[in-house]
TrEMBL record, chain A:
GO terms for biological process: alginic acid biosynthetic process. It is found in: Cell membrane. Pfam families: MBOAT (PF03062). Coiled coil: none annotated. This is MBOAT family protein. The chain crosses the membrane at residues 6-23, 30-56, 76-92, 104-126, 146-165, 220-238, 355-372, 379-399, 405-424, 445-463. PANTHER family: ACYLTRANSFERASE, PROTEIN-CYSTEINE N-PALMITOYLTRANSFERASE RASP. One of its GO terms (cellular component) is plasma membrane. The keyword Transferase applies. Its main location: membrane. Keywords: Acyltransferase, Cell membrane, Membrane, Transferase, Transmembrane, Transmembrane helix. The keyword Transcription does not apply. Belongs to the membrane-bound acyltransferase family.
UniProtKB/TrEMBL annotation, chain B:
It holds the Pfam family DHHW. This is DHHW protein.
Length: 471, 372
C-alpha cells in the first residue's frame, strides 16, 4: 500500500487510527505491529515472511550477542547476523544484476531469477543491522520484547521509504510513548504537507520528466534537456521528502519522534553540504556503521579517500542494482574527495553563489545517471544538455512544455527554499493580533485545502508512480 | 487553553475530511460505467486466496476504490480547475484552446512511421481491388491551428495525407484538408467534441462531389435546423468542468424523401437521425443512430446507384448528405465488424458495380483501420 492512495487515506488510516487510540496503552504496540503487517501484506503478501524472518533472526542474534558480551562468540554472532542480512539483501536485490554481469563478461547464459524486489527491503535490513551493531557496541541493551522489536522493524510509517531509523534513536519510544494533542496536530499537518508534496508537485513534475525523457534525440533541444532534468530533480526531491514528511507526521501522531531526513538540499553550497542535507538518515547510517568503523579521517588522507570511495560505492548500489547507480555514487565520491583536497577551501573563500551553482550542476548531472539506465541514453541526454547533439538551443516543444509547467516549476522552486518555514516562523512568533490570526486561520485552512486538492489528483491519477521499488 | 482549542480544530478539520469522505464512500453504490468519462469503471475484485497471495487482489482493490470513489466526477472537475489555475493548457489529453475550443491532443510521438506505412498498405490493397475513393478528414488540431495554445505540439496530418495521396494516386484521393482549411474560421468542429459539425461535413461533401465530378445536391446552409443547443461532447467529459455548450444542426433537405434503414441486419428505422440520443450524454449519436457494425440504407434517389462506405464515426454526419446521390448505401464500421471485408463487399456488390468510399478522420484511420 502507498500513502498516496484512496485505499490508504480513506480505509486503512481511519480504521487503524481508531483502533490505535481506542485500545489501552499496553496494546498499542500490538495494534501498530498488526496494522503494519496488513499495510505491508497488501501489495506483497508473500514477502511478509521474509520480513518476519529478518525480525526474528536479528532479535535472536541481538540476545546472543548480549549474552556472550566480551567473548569471541559475540563477535561471531554479529558476523552471522550481518552476513544473513547482506545475503538476503544480496539475493533479492543484486543476484540478477550479478548474473547479468557474469553473463555479459563471460558470454554465458545463466538464467536470471526474475524475483520481484521485496518493497522496503533496503530500509528494514539496514534498520535491523543498525540494531545488532548497536547491541554489539554496547550502545544499547538487547531488546527483551519481541513485539517491541517487531514494531521497530515493521512500523508502517517509515517501512517502505524511510527515514531509516537507527535503533538507539527510537528505543525509548518503543517502550513508552505519548501522543499529546500538540504532537498529533503537528503530525497531521506534517503528513498532509508531505502528501501534497508527493501528489501535487512530484507527480505532476514527474509527468513532465516522463514526457521529456521519452522524446527522441532529434527533438531534445538544450532548453528541453535542462527543463527535463530540473523536473526530475524536483520530482525525486518532493517525492522522497514528501514520503519522509508523511512518515515523520504519522510517527508524531503515534507518539514517536523520527529524525529529519531532508534539510533543503538544493540550497547546499557544496557537495559535502548537499549530503548533509539529502537523505540524512542514509548518509548518517553509512557514516556511523561503515565510514567511521573503517577509520574515517583518522588514518591519513590516503585511507580517508579509500573510505570515501567504499562508502559511496555502497551508497550508489544501495539505490539500485545497476551500473548507473554505482557510477552515480562514484560521481559524488569524486567531488567529495576534490572538496576534501582543495575545492572545499576554495569554495569557502568564494562568494556563496559559486558554491550553489557548482553544487546544483553536479547534482543535476548526477540525476541523469540516476534517472536513465542505459549508458547510451545517459550519454545522449548529457550531449543534449550541453548542445552537442545539434538540435539547437530550443524548439517549439520545449517552449510549449516550459509554458505549460512554468507556474508549477516556480511553485516547486519556492517550495525547495526555506521561505515557507521562515514565513510560518515569523507569523507564529509575532505577537501582533493580525499576524497571529493569519497563522491560526492558515494552519487550519491550508492543510484541509491541500488534502482535498491531493485527493482530487489521486482520484484522477493516471500517474502515481512509486519511485522506491528499486531501493 | 487557547492553544489546545487550536490544535483540536486543526486535527478536527483534517479528520473531518478523511472520515466524512470515507463514510460517504462506504455508502456510495458502485457504478458499472462512467458516462462522463465514457469508460467502464473497475468492478469490485472477486476474492480468492490465490489472487490475494499474488498481490493481484490488493492491486485490483486499490484500482476499484479509486474508480468507484464517492463523487468521482466532482474530483475530476476539482483537478481540472486546479490545473487551469496552474495555467496548464493541456489537461487529460485535451488542449484548452482559444475561443472556448477544446481540441483533442494527438501526440506526434504516438504515431510512428511504421504505423502509417502499415495502414497505408492496407488502404492501398482496398483501393486497388475496389477502385475506392479515400477521404481522410484532418482533426481539429491540424485545422484550427490558430486556436491551439502557443507552441502546442500536434501530429502532422498534412504529411500523412501527402503520403496517402502519393500511395493511392491522385484520382483516388479526396482533398478534404484544403477544403476545411479554407473554412477554418467557420464552426466546422464542435467546441466540446472531437467530431466535425454538420457544416464541416458539408464542406467535406462538396470536396467529395468535386472529386467525383458530380453536381452536389443543393443543400441550403442558411436553412440548417438546430436540434440541440446543449451538447457537451467527449472532450468536455475528459476535463469535466462546465466549459461551453455546442449546437447540433442538420440539413432538413436530407429528410425530404423517405428512407428505410437496417442496422446490423436487424433493427429497422425510417430516418437517418435518432433524436432519442439528444436526451443522452452522447448527443452525436443523433447521426445515424450512433455506431453500428453494418448499416443498409435505401433512398428514393438515383435508382441503380450503390455506394459502399468503410468508415468511422466522422462519417455519421456526412452520410446523410450522400443519401441524395445513391439509391442504396452500405456502411461498415471496421471497429465493430469482425468478418471478412472483401467477402462482405462482394456479397453486396450489384451487377453494375458500386462506388466505394473510405471515410475516416486521420487519427482513427491510424488507430483503427484494419480489415481481414
Amino acid at each position: 500500500m502507498v500513502f498516496s492512495s484512496v485505499l490508504f487515506l480513506f480505509r486503512f488510516l481511519p480504521i487503524f487510527m481508531i483502533c490505535y487510540f481506542l485500545v489501552p496503552r499496553n496494546m498499542k504496540n500490538l495494534v501498530l505491529f498488526l496494522g503494519s503487517l496488513v499495510f505491508y501484506a497488501w501489495g506483497e503478501p508473500v514477502y511478509i515472511f521474509l520480513m518476519l524472518f529478518s525480525t526474528i533472526s536479528d532479535f535472536v542474534w541481538g540476545r546472543l550477542i548480549e549474552e556472550y558480551r566480551g567473548e569471541d562468540r559475540s563477535r561471531i554472532f554479529l558476523l552471522c547476523s550481518v552476513v544473513i542480512n547482506l545475503f538476503i539483501l544480496g539475493f533479492f536485490k543484486y543476484a540478477d544484476f550479478l548474473l547479468q554481469t557474469v553473463n555479459t563478461v563471460f558470454g554465458t547464459s545463466i538464467p536470471l531469477l526474475g524475483l520481484p524486489l521485496p518493497i522496503g527491503i533496503s530500509f528494514y535490513t539496514f534498520q535491523t543491522m543498525s540494531y545488532v551493531i548497536d547491541v554489539y557496541r554496547g550502545d544499547t541493551k538487547a531488546q527483551r520484547n519481541i513485539l517491541q522489536f517487531g514494531v521497530y522493524v515493521t512500523m508502517f510509517p517509515q517501512l517502505i521509504a524511510g527515514p531509516i531509523l537507527k535503533y538507539h534513536q527510537i528505543e525509548k519510544y518503543l517502550q513508552e510513548r505519548r501522543s499529546d494533542l500538540d504532537a498529533i496536530s503537528y503530525g497531521a499537518k506534517r503528513f498532509v504537507t508531505g502528501l501534497a508534496k508527493k501528489v501535487l508537485l512530484a507527480n505532476n513534475l514527474g509527468l513532465l520528466w516522463t514526457q521529456i525523457s521519452s522524446l527522441k534525440n532529434d527533438q531534445m533541444s538544450v532548453l528541453m534537456a535542462w527543463i527535463g532534468i530540473v523536473a526530475y530533480a524536483f520530482q525525486i526531491y518532493f517525492d522522497f521528502s514528501g514520503y519522509s514528511d508523511m512518515a515523520i507526521g504519522l510517527g508524531a501522531i503515534l507518539g514517536f519522534h523520527f529524525p529529519e531526513n531532508f534539510n533543503y538540499p538544493y540550497i547546499a553550497t557544496s557537495v559535502t553540504d548537499f549530503w548533509h542535507r539529502w537523505h540524512i538518515s542514509l548518509s548518517t547510517w553509512f557514516k556511523e556503521y561503515v565510514y567511521i568503523p573503517l577509520g574515517g579521517n583518522r588514518k591519513g588522507l590516503a585511507r580517508q579517500i579509500l573510505n570515501i570511495l567504499i562508502v559511496w560505492t555502497l551508497t550508489g548500489i544501495w539505490h539500485g542494482a545497476g551500473w548507473n547507480f554505482l557510477f552515480w555514487g562514484l560521481w559524488f565520491a569524486l567531488f567529495l574527495i576534490l572538496e576534501k583536497l582543495f575545492l572545499g577551501e576554495l569554495l569557502k573563500n568564494a562568494p556563496v553563489v559559486f558554491g550553489r551553482v557548482y553544487t546544483l550542476t553536479v547534482v543535476l548531472i548526477s540525476w541523469v545517471f540516476f534517472a536513465l539506465e542505459k549508458p547510451g541514453e545517459i550519454l545522449a541526454y548529457l550531449q543534449a544538455m550541453f548542445g552537442l547533439n545539434g538540435v539547437g538551443l530550443m524548439n517549439t516543444q520545449a517552449m510549449f512544455l516550459g509554458n505549460e509547467y512554468l507556474v508549477l516549476l516556480i511553485i516547486a522552486l519556492v517550495a525547495c527554499l526555506p521561505v515557507g518555514s521562515l514565513l510560518i516562523h515569523r507569523l507564529k512568533s509575532s505577537k501582533t493580533g493580525p499576524a497571529m490570526a493569519l497563522y491560526r486561520v492558515g494552519e487550519k485552512v491550508i492543510p484541509a485545502a491541500l488534502l482535498i486538492l491531493s485527493v482530487a489528483y489521486i482520484v484522477d491519477a493516471s500517474y502515481n508512480p512509486f519511485l522506491y521499488f528499486r531501493f | 487553553m487557547d492553544d489546545k482549542r487550536n490544535a483540536l480544530l486543526t486535527v478536527g478539520l483534517i479528520c473531518a475530511v478523511l472520515f466524512i469522505l470515507g463514510i460517504a464512500d462506504l455508502c456510495n453504490s458502485d457504478r458499472i460505467y462512467s458516462e462522463t468519462e465514457n469508460r467502464v469503471l473497475a468492478p469490485r475484485p472477486t476474492f480468492s486466496w490465490e489472487s490475494l497471495l499474488s498481490g493481484e487482489y490488493g492491486d485490483d482493490y486499490e484500482e476499484y476504490m479509486s474508480d468507484q470513489f464517492v463523487g468521482r466526477d466532482k474530483w475530476v472537475g476539482i483537478k481540472t480547475r486546479a490545473d487551469i489555475l496552474f495555467q496548464k493548457k493541456e489537461i487529460n489529453g485535451v488542449y484548452l484552446g482559444a475561443d472556448r475550443y477544446l481540441i483533442g491532443v494527438n501526440d506526434p510521438q504516438e504515431y510512428t512511421e511504421q504505423m502509417e506505412d502499415s495502414r497505408i498498405a492496407s488502404l492501398k490493397k482496398l483501393v486497388n481491388r475496389w477502385d475506392a475513393k479515400v477521404m481522410l478528414v484532418p482533426t481539429a488540431d491540424n485545422i484550427l491551428t490558430d486556436k491551439l495554445p502557443a507552441f502546442a505540439p500536434h501530429y502532422d496530418e498534412m504529411r500523412l495525407l501527402a503520403k496517402v495521396k502519393e500511395s493511392v494516386g491522385e484520382e483516388h484521393y479526396i482533398d478534404v484538408y484544403s477544403a476545411l482549411q479554407e473554412h477554418a474560421g467557420e464552426p466546422i468542429y464542435y467546441r466540446t467534441d472531437h467530431h466535425w459539425t454538420s457544416l464541416g461535413a458539408y464542406y467535406g461533401f462538396l470536396a467529395w462531389a468535386d472529386n467525383m465530378g458530380k453536381f452536389p445536391y443543393p443543400y441550403n446552409m442558411a436553412g440548417m435546423k438546430t436540434v440541440s443547443e446543449d451538447f457537451q461532447g467527449t472532450l468536455q467529459s475528459r476535463i469535466n468542468v462546465a466549459w461551453t455548450k455546442d449546437r447540433i444542426q442538420y440539413f432538413p433537405e436530407t429528410e425530404k424523401k423517405p428512407v428505410s434503414i437496417t442496422y446490423d441486419f436487424a433493427d429497422k428505422a425510417d430516418s437517418l437521425y435518432a433524436p432519442e440520443y439528444l436526451e443522452t450524454k452522447n448527443q452525436y449519436g443523433f447521426f445515424l443512430n450512433d455506431n453500428h457494425a453494418f448499416i443498409e440504407i435505401h433512398t428514393g434517389y438515383n435508382p441503380g446507384k450503390t455506394l459502399f462506405v468503410i468508415k468511422d464515426s466522422y462519417a455519421n454526419s456526412m452520410i446523410p448528405l450522400l443519401a441524395a446521390h445513391y439509391e442504396t448505401i452500405y456502411v461498415v464500421d471496421l471497429r465493430y465488424f469482425n468478418g471478412k471485408l472483401f467477402q462482405l463487399m462482394e456479397q453486396y456488390e450489384p451487377e453494375q458495380g458500386m462506388d466505394v468510399l473510405v471515410l475516416y478522420d486521420c487519427i482513427h484511420f491510424l488507430e483503427d483501420f484494419r480489415f481481414y
